[in-house]
Design goal:
With 519 residues, the protein is an all-alpha fold. It has a domain at 1-223. It has helices at 15-45, 48-69, 72-78, 84-108, 113-116, 121-128, 130-147, 151-175, 180-202, 212-247, 249-281, 288-315, 317-324, 332-358, 362-383, 388-413, 418-423, 426-448, 453-473, 479-487, 499-510. Helix 8 runs antiparallel to helix 9 (180-202).
Length: 519
Amino acid sequence: MTGRSSEGQAPDLTGRTMSSLRWSYLSSGVNAVLLLAVTAILARLLYPAAFGVVAMAAVILSFGQYFAQMGVGRALVQRPDITREDVRVAFTSSVLLGTGFSALFWIGAPLAMYLFHDPEVVPILRVSGLTFLITGFTTTAMALLQRDLRFRAVAIVEIASYTIVYAPLGVALAYAGFGAWSLVLAGLGQLTLTALLAYAFSRHSVRPSLSGATLRALYSFGARVSGISFVEFLGSNVGPMWIGNRLGAGALGVYNRAFNLVNLPTYYFTTSLSRVMYSSMSRVQDDTAKLRGTYLSLTTVFAALLMPACWGAAGASRQIIPVLLGPRWTEAIPVFTILALAAPFSFMAHLSGVISEVTASLNPKLILSLGRLAILILLLVLLTPLGLIGYAVAFAVTEILVYASYFVLMRTVLATSMGRLLAGQGAGYTIGLLMMALTAAIGWLGTVGDLPVWLTLVIQVVAGVCGLTWFTLRGFSGAIWAAMRAGLRWTDRVRPDTRSGRIMAWLDSHAAGSRGPRT
């Protein structure tokens, strides 16, 4: 069907790769804004227990999700060459696995009572199990779109499914009094439209095929990726399982909203980049020099943007929670603060994990994932008396340790030094601490001055954006902006008479060490 494309071979942010990245970020940006708006509305229409019972079902469903897909989508993207037979086998096996797991979870849903002791989770789990069936029809199409760097199509699919189905349907059903079911039905509707649109764009063959040789070729890689992802899932979800089992749906709902509020916007930011880079870097997976250069450039930019954003949000947690979620969610404030401090480490480690998959360094990644799980369980046991705050601390400490461990792995995989890996991230740490101090100080002044909470948050956001812009352009002798410009080499080809060209010229002229706009 398709072999190596002559386009987008290099993993730098040029040509097709950069076009794909722009579309991926458009999709993520729109969905992140909608997510915050819909979260704010639903948090006022639903009680924490509604989010909690859906989170319980989601945790259990995630157990099956890794085996229902078996990493076949990742295998299609990672393989240097694929054939029409590969696509047919991938689609057929995905549909069969999805159907089987939907049936399995419908039958076995009552067993969830042994884990969460909440009878409402059983019907929620049965209906939510249909996601396996729908995803089985979607996996191959989305993988092919990503493999061919057709992220414009991916963006249309993602934006349309959220804006046309999930947002309006979820809010309407919650307003009508459907409670937790509003989240379940909105999610199923979103997945259904995603499946239809993804196939409309990819139009791959749906003729059944289960060739043994092709199955082995696809699943030898996909099964290992899926197994590692399953271990990573355990590391990410053993805490919510622990909370749901020990503290109930209400506490899990509080944790779930705090976690999503801080992690989903940054998740959109990082996965938009990583999925494009996964597709692009897989094409040159044997060129260590190119992979190393891309990784070093990206980690510098990631640190300089994610740490100030997340740590600034931590400093503003007492304003963010009441404004976005409402007064009934005050218990989420300390949890949100801790998770915001840990978020940059999680996503920096995620980028290292992408490099591990691209280079097929799966055994070391599995060892790291197993170690993460063991450390998290140990910390959960030790910090259980602290309740939600104890779990948040356990999660944060574990993420920092994983982040540090991945640097050791990247030193070997990318054939570089630890000093070079860490050199570009010092600015991110410094700016992040300054942004946290800035937003916390504004929050304190707003309280002393008796300002409305929403007004204080607006001031914090404006001050944070201005501060981050100044540090990006002027701080550290312009090193951050220089690193971004080095990574975004496509901007050198932007016409100066266009809006993009004028923006780039203005930024260049205000950057430290600039000699004026570039032409």
